[in-house]
Amino acid sequence: MTYGARPSAFSRANLPYWLAIVLAGATLVWFLTTQQPFATGPTAGGPGITTTTAATDGSTAPGETTTTTTGTDTSAVTTSSVPLPENPLQALAVETITDQLSSPTFAIVAPGDDTIYVLERRGIIRTVDPDTGEVGLFLDIVNKSNADKGIELGLLGMAFHPEFETNRRFWIYYTDVEHDAAVVEYQVGANGLPDLGSEDRIMEIDRLPNGLRHNGGMMQFGPDGYLYIASGDNGQFDVNPQDPSTRKGVIMRIDVDSGDPYASPADNPWADGTGAPEVWAIGFRNPWRFYIDAPENLIYIGDVGQSSWEEIDAVPLEPVGYNFGWPQLEGRSCWVVATGCQTAGMTMPVVQYGHDEGCSVTGGLVYRGTQIPELIGHYFFADWCNGWIRSFRLEEGAADEVKEWTELGNVGQVSSFGLDADGEILFVTSSGVLGRLIPVR
Question: For the whole prediction, is pTM greater than 0.85?
């Protein structure tokens, strides 16, 4: 059998097939370049609705926005160099490390050590293994504290020296049997426990009559090498936290590497004798927890409110001499409306919320770990009464991407936040839980 010549591949008979191939190729190119089906990061999320609106009820600062997220979608802006995982963040969950603690008030790790040190209000410092949850004893000062007199008394704060690995120095803040607040220095001995002979009471803040509340207690070293210390108004607002000479309702800044037992930095705002030389900022009711974010040289302060408002303040560490308003202001509002108030020169909060949403803010910290890169640079905080955890990102001095992590539910009365050795978020609750926030992907 003889066959005729085969038609050309580009003959008129094959034209419809070539047209279909070209159209299919063009469609594929459009899909890959505009829809980015293989993109990683927070743009590829689960179902959820996120709305951002500017507040108009006076509850937020000028330019501040409130973001409410429903469902599980999480879209966070970050300038982190940490690569985003291929599987996007869907939610946060709680990992319980231990629930065998007694009224914990703080959690911290020492430089060069992954052990978690947890303060118990009664005057005990526990060690907790971050992997097994095994609990040990580090320090017992129960006979020196007065925790049985009220829930705002006892062992409240702790800070390790930035060079702890070599000098083994640390400090604690507690209220003593006379109800005075004390800052006490220790050194860790060769056995890994505090050398009780090294105890040095470097600062004492005398209590006021009936002053059993609002003792502050937070301590942290700043990138300037100075130790920052928070003190409340002692529950007596008439002490006037507008007066820097009282050392109440203030944040102090001291140099523990100079002087005897410390020196006040020469650039502290009242170091010239017009106030207490240790005082760095005034106008607080009870700055229970603050956090210094060294990479941005910012301090975030959770100041517990009185009648109507809870607040978070955030300012650069420089300049010094801030006035945060109390008792003239509660949040952004005049507290004593009948007599009015002067607001000139006062620093307003970046976030406030009313007592319809909670009753006592627990200031938190800025996340800079590795497990949740979508949230690097976001500040986390909680409310003692309503048990929620929220976060926001500071953008040009205003709170952005404010979010409540509703999937966590009521996590309990959060006393404090902390960071583990990897920079992941820890928190403790009054019921005895030490927990860690972990991502759900």
Answer: no
